[in-house]
Each structure stands twice: as C-alpha cells, then as structure tokens.
Amino acid sequence: MRVEFILNGRKVAVDVEPSETLLNTLRFKLRVKSVKRGCERGECGSCTILLDGQPVTSCMLLTLQVEGREVTTVEGLEKDDLFKKLVDYFIEEGAIQCGFCTPGILLTAWAGLKQGRFKSVDDVREYVANLCRCTGYVKIINAIYKAATGVAGR
Amino acid sequence: MVVSEIPPINITARNTRIIPFEYEYYEPRSLKEVLELLDRYGDQARILAGGTDLLVKMKARLVEPRVVINVKKIDGLRYIVEDGEQVRIGALTRLRDVENSELVKKYIPALHDAVKSMGSIQIRNMATIGGNLCNASPAADTAPPLLVHNAKVVLSSVGGDRVLPLAEFFKGPGLTMLKPNELLREIIVEKSIAGSSAFKKVSRVAVDLAIASAAVYVEVEDGFIRNARIALGSVAPKPLRAVKTESLLRGLRIDSREVLNALKTIDEEISPITDVRSTAEYRRYASKVLVLDALEVAYARLKGGVHG
C-alpha cells in the first residue's frame, strides 16, 4: 500500500506492508538511521519521532497511520536555532556517551522546550523519560534544563 | 521524493522485529463505517487506536487478528465535555489530552493523577483512554479513578447503544463485556462536587506498570466521612471497588485510628497474585497504605479547595 507523508519538510511516498512499523520504514526504506531500534515496545524512547510536533515512539505506529501527517527526526531540525542551542548544551555538559539514545532524547527535549514545559528540573525529568544506559541522566537533565533556563540545574 | 527510486532493504525478522503475520487493514472515516466493519468481522477483528498495547501483543504473537481496524482517523470521538453533573470523555481521547484537561483536573482529580503516572510522554501522546479500558489489564491505571467516580461506558454497535456501569464492564484479565460487534464509544464520569478524589500507585520506576494502585473518592462533613468510594488496581483479576470497606468508613472521623482498622477489611476484598512485578503479600500491604495516602490527598484537596 502506498503512503504519503511529510518527512522533515519534504513530501515522501513509499510502498509499505500493512504490518510495517514507521520505525522500519524510516530506517530500512527511507534510510533515516538517527531513529534507533531499541526495545520495540514503546518503553525506551530510542525510536522517538515527532508526529505533528508531538513526541511518539515510531515502533508503536504502523506506517499506514501517518498518512498525510508530518514526521520530524533530528535531521529535520538541523537548522533550527532552539535545536542548535540544545545540542550545544549537550556538548558543553558532556551529556552523550554512546549516543544511541541521543536522537530520541533530543527530539523529546526539543518538543518540551518548544512548548515551554520546563520550569524546574523535575519537569525535565518527568517529560524526558527516555532510557539511557550510559550516562546516569544527570548531565542530560542538566543540559536540557540549561537550554530551558540558561542556568545549571543542580 | 518518491522512494521507489531507492532500493529498499528487505525487512525481515532477522534485521528487525516485524509483525510476523498478515492481516487486512481498514481505516474507516466514520463511526458508522467502524460499526459495520465490526459487525462483519466480529471477533476476527481488532480495533487499533493508540496501538501501545495492541502492537506489542501482535509483535509477540499474543494476538493474531485477521482484520485490523484503525479507528484513529475518525473525527468526533476525541473530546472532554462538561454535561451537567457529568463529564463525557470520547473513547479516542489521548491520555495526554486527559492530563492537560482543566475539566479533569477540577472534577475528576484522581483521573488526572492517574494519567500523569502512566507511561512516558511519547506513550501518553498515542494511547487512548478507551484503549486503556478495553485492554482490560488488572493494572489499567485509568480504571480505579473512573470506578470511584461511578463512571459508565457507552458501547455502540450497528444495533444501537447500550450503557453499562464501568464496574460491570471488566470480566477478568484482558476480558470485557464488549460483544464482538461493539465499540466503546464514550465514558460518562460523575464529577466530584461534594467531595474530592485522588489516585496513588506504587511501581518499580516512574513510568512503569503499577504493582498496586488505589483511587479514593471521599465526602467529609465536620471531620467525619459522609461518603467514601475505594477502587483498587493490580490486586485482583480486574480493577475492583472495595464496597465493604467503603461502608465501614462511613461515619468515621477521617483522621482517626478507626480508619486504619476499617482498611484491614480490604484484605477480604482483594485476591492479589505473585508475579514478575511483586508478591501477593506486598500487594496486600501496599494496597492499604495506598488507600490511606489517597484518602489523605483527597481530604487535603477537599479542605483546600485546591486540585491537582
């Protein structure tokens, strides 16, 4: 079945099986490799994408469900100022180790920042519940909180 | 960009976890179409709403429907509206919508507590309240708050609607009173006007499934409990009301030791099991503490007139 949707501002058309998840279509057909396959059951957040601006897990979506909608991955935010600021704070804080969870976390954090959700460190902790097996979260949370407020959240 | 120009990599069970069987996929645009499809396919069909439970089960081959009906494209089943002394919630309302609703925060505070504790933001953006109820997990967090708010569910089929108290809707783990041709369309919830409510749960980590959960609705007059409703999750084959304990609470001073004594009756009303998440013994202990905590929060809300 043919599906059309907007991927990072560009219209794409792709033939998919009804049983194909968006995660698979993005990685194996559209070659968007920033979207990571983690737990495959909506728990880890590694496969997070923005669907019409809201973070969702692409392993729990059939590709057919995104017909006509807007899908954003980190590739689509490269030129966004808020995103660049967020990435800078990640680098400054050293909030990355292996990097596997990073794209999903950046997308989730960006959506929260964009919606002005981070008034406190706890807000960040609650909103960005993606799993990371390396960092212990402190630097990630600090980087996001810094991007939101300009101050370190310790 | 038309992607057929890029040669696709074959998606197989070797390179990713796929849904390992074929099914027919429908995407009806109206309630009428959904009900007709359900009438045609009955129990061969599964409703796909948020997908956060169904797709996990399909990947693991726990369910293998011949037909999948995606209902998310239907307009008009995603709403939270005030209707006199009730709040009506459309079955396709996302958990995130419920969480952000001022109506829910004000009139169904226990439900607000519950959705805030459910899954990650990503999951809350996808999962629907109707899906949480129809999945009928004993650990469904929306169930205890709705039970203490005397919720009713509206079930639709080509033959028309019927209304059922939520307390009668659950039959057991994964089992409901839905007939194969019926769709849960709406949830009707009693507002807390004279009282207030709260929800508490214990889970291993913040976004996890509940080990045990409790919701309480309470009305208090001059420090005495006038009316109380208690519902518990993850401590029986289905979410349930603790009606015996409720009746014992009536007339007691809310801050007295007698309340603690009355809560011991909960033991007779629940039948927890030991599983991967916890032991039956701990669940018995925790459910009483959770009810007490929820009672305290609900009472504080009632006194302060503050919600959330």
Task: Describe this entry's structure for a reader.
- The complex is a heterodimer of chains A (154) and B (308).
- In chain A, helix 2 packs across helix 3 and helix 2 packs across helix 5.
- Chain A is built from five helices and five strands; from the N terminus they run ββαβββαααα.
- Chain A is an alpha+beta fold.
- Helices cover 34% and strands 15% of the residues of chain A.
- A five-stranded mixed beta sheet of chain A has the order 2-1-5-3-4, sandwiched between helices.
- Chain A folds into two domains: 2-76, Ubiquitin-like (UB roll) (Roll), CATH 3.10.20.30; 79-149, [2Fe-2S]-binding domain (DNA polymerase, domain 1, Orthogonal Bundle).
- Chain B is α+β, with helices and mostly antiparallel strands.
- Helix content of chain B is 33%, strand content 24%.
- Chain B is built from 13 helices and 14 strands.
- Chain B has helices at residues 31-41, 54-59, 95-100, 102-107, 109-116, 121-126, 129-134, 143-148, 166-169, 243-249, 257-263, 266-269, 280-304; strands at residues 24-26, 45-48, 67-70, 80-83, 86-90, 152-157, 160-165, 170-172, 175-176, 183-190, 196-202, 212-221, 224-233, 240-241.
- In chain B, the strands form four sheets. Chain B has a five-stranded antiparallel beta sheet.
- The N and C termini of chain B lie far apart (47 Å).
Quick synopsis:
Chain A has 154 residues and is of the alpha+beta class. Chain A has helices at 22-29, 81-93, 102-114, 121-127, 138-149, and strands at 2-7, 10-15, 48-51, 54-57, 70-72.
